[in-house]
Write a structure and sequence with these properties.
With 102 residues, the protein is mainly alpha-helical. The protein has four helices and two strands, in the order αααββα.
Length: 102
């Protein structure tokens, strides 16, 4: 499964975090407004890209395993930084928008 050239999709971190919060792929799908199959596919792709299992899957949902727990705080920091980036861009665009009269 290991491939040094494989990169994960940044958006998969959002799906990872939603799955952690919801304790299930179904709950994550509902939170994000996407299909459960999309969540499952993206989690599988993230695990493949990272070459690590993040969740133990059970009938009751998904439980973050030790590997997932070890990466959770970093994923949360990445998400917080992405939100800060988005907010700064929005603020900058507000400052630089409006009517210019000559």
């Amino acid at each position: 499964m290991h491939n040094d050239t494989t990169m994960f999709e940044w958006s998969d971190l959002k799906i990872f975090l939603a799955t952690v919060r919801a304790h299930s792929m179904l709950g994550a799908a509902a939170e994000l407004g996407i299909n459960q199959s999309t969540v499952a596919r993206r989690i599988t792709a993230l695990e493949a890209a990272l070459d690590i299992r993040l969740f133990d899957r059970t009938r009751d949902g998904c439980r973050l395993n030790e590997a997932g727990k070890s990466l959770l705080s970093q994923a949360e920091r990445v998400a917080a930084e992405a939100e800060t980036f988005k907010r700064l861009v929005t603020q900058r665009n507000r400052v630089h928008s409006g009517v210019v009269r000559v």
